[in-house]
Amino acid sequence: MLLITQLKKRLQKSLPGINAQLKMMNSVMKKRDPGAYFNAPENAKKACVMVLLFKKKSKWYTLLMQRPESPYPHSRQISLPGGKLEAIDASLEAGALRETEEEFGIPANDIETIGRLSKLYIPVSDFLVHPFVGFIEKVPKYIIDYKEVAEIIEVKLEDLINPSIRKETNIKTYGGYTLKNTPYFDINGKVVWGATAMILSEFVDILRSLDF
Predict the structure, then answer these.
(1) Positive or negative CA dihedral for 160, 162, 163, 165?
(2) How many whole angstroms separate alpha carbon 153 and alpha carbon 131?
(3) Counted domains in the chain
(4) What are 61-79's pLDDT values in tens digits?
(5) Which residues pair with 54 in a beta bridge?
(6) Cα–Cα dist 111/88, whole Å
(7) Alpha carbon distance 92, 95 (integer Å)
(8) Torsion of CA 109, 17, 119, 159, to 10 degrees
(9) Domain that holds residue 122
């Protein structure tokens, strides 16, 4: 498990942070308010997400999901497993593990947390997101909560770090606005943009610094 050993060591060091996250931020927003995703108010709601890694047929994967249709800001968007920190959660890490189990059916006890990425604020929903990186030794078997998850997307890490999947398009937002020339990851034909893309951008920078 060379990748996991390398990641554990790398995640203990200084992270790429804002510089990596900004690569996937809309250019207009970057010019107008570059601090929007980094200056969270003190009373911002807390959320936790998990970048979960596993090996299948000698290839390393991580997981994303498409959210179902809903009246909420992140309807139909692609995201990492995770959600709001609840009163029952003993820590941010516990919240990420609980949400992953609830949404995907992967037992929290099967997941080893190996580090965390830089936090990121989402202005539209007022959540300060805390991303964790975890590892599961076996190929996961899913028990999907279809109220939260429309589709699970398995992503090969070799595809994630391929520069050709980074593209730009016009994105129509929840509020009816159009964000022109917005960077996104074209993952399995899905448009992965916004906070999820910004979190993944930092993870990609870290992966590219490793030999796996």
Answers:
(1) negative
(2) 18
(3) 1
(4) 999 999 987 656 556 789 9
(5) 61
(6) 19
(7) 5
(8) -50
(9) 2-208
Token readout for 58 is: 């000698």
Give pLDDT tens digits for 22-75: 999 987 777 777 778 888 999 999 999 999 999 999 999 999 999 987 656 556
- CA distances for 208 relative to 49, 90, 158, 166, 204, angstroms: 21, 33, 10, 14, 6
Contact assessment for residue 129 and residue 99, using Cβ atoms and an 8 Å cutoff: no
CATH code for the domain in which residue 113 is found: 3.90.79.10
- Which amino acid makes up residue 169? T
Residue of 12, 94, 114 lying closest to 48 (CA atoms): 94
Residue 173, pLDDT score: 74
| Predicted TM-score (pTM) of this structure | 0.94
